[in-house]
Design brief:
This protein has one domain. The chain contains six helices and no strands. The chain is an all-alpha fold.
């Protein structure tokens, strides 16, 4: 069963997400502003989509000379420990989970 919230988020490209981060930059505390932009580039959406669509993801990783476990899935709760704003993550994650559970599409996001 597909979830309308996730489906609506999946319509956004990497460029859309980076533009959203850029539009929020002025509202992010200066301590975290640059680090937030860097974090989003550590886990590029285009690379994730490419690897997810590859017939052989391990071979695709080798073609990029990628080694180790670099994905975000297993470290979503810890990958941003270096950010000062990390302390807000439990509340942010709870809000995202609540919105996801509602299954309402993300109609308030520009596309």
């Amino acid at each position: 069963m597909s979830n309308p919230f996730i489906t609506s988020l999946e319509k956004h490209t990497e460029a859309d997400w980076l533009a959203a981060i850029d539009s929020l930059a002025a509202d992010i505390h200066e301590v975290d502003r640059t680090a937030t932009q860097v974090w989003f580039r550590f886990y590029p959406l285009d690379l994730v989509l490419y690897l997810n669509s590859a017939k052989n993801p391990d071979e695709a990783k080798r073609n990029f000379a990628m080694q180790g476990d670099f994905g975000l899935e297993d470290r979503i709760d810890t990958s941003h420990n270096f950010l000062y704003g990390h302390r807000f993550w439990p509340d942010v994650k709870a809000a995202i989970d609540k919105r996801n559970d509602s299954a309402e599409p993300a109609t308030d996001l520009p596309k």
